[in-house]
Request: fold
Amino acid sequence: EDGIDLLAANQKLLFSASGQVGTQFNGINKGTPPFNRLKNDVTYGASVSGGTGKTYAALASLLLEGESDYSIGTTYAGYMDFSRQFRLDLEEHVKTLVGINRNMSLISYQTSTHLKYSRPAPDIALAQLALTDVDADYHAMASPTYFLPYHSDGVHLSNLGELTLGAYFG
Reply:
């Protein structure tokens, strides 16, 4: 739909879903099982592509995280620090594995659940927005979520909300 023909360019995209539902940042950072799954997925991608004679570059990771941090009261500064460190740790693995000296990007969304968790200020959402400004070379936002339909729990997006958010990530 955007005029890019990956087949003509002889390129393929490889995706994995290595996250952990309902987990705060401290449960997905370096050394945790979800982070190790992500490292394994990147390693697998590199090994599969090398076996076909193709090159491999992991240039970005989608990061859908924030609601669980609202639930435990993670601060603005804490979220900024976790996000930056997560990106750096993933980038370190990719650079070591692939040998490509490019910066890793994180593409995220902006959560909209602070009221559900009785937080007067949207600290996580503000941190997510700030990262796209102060760290614009490394952090991008696909979309905010405030306008998307949610389930009745007010935390999780409905199937239509997830589908719409997926289109924004695409």
User: Anything to note?
Assistant: The radius of gyration is 17 Å. The mean pLDDT is 87. The CA atoms of residues 71 and 117 lie 6 Å apart.
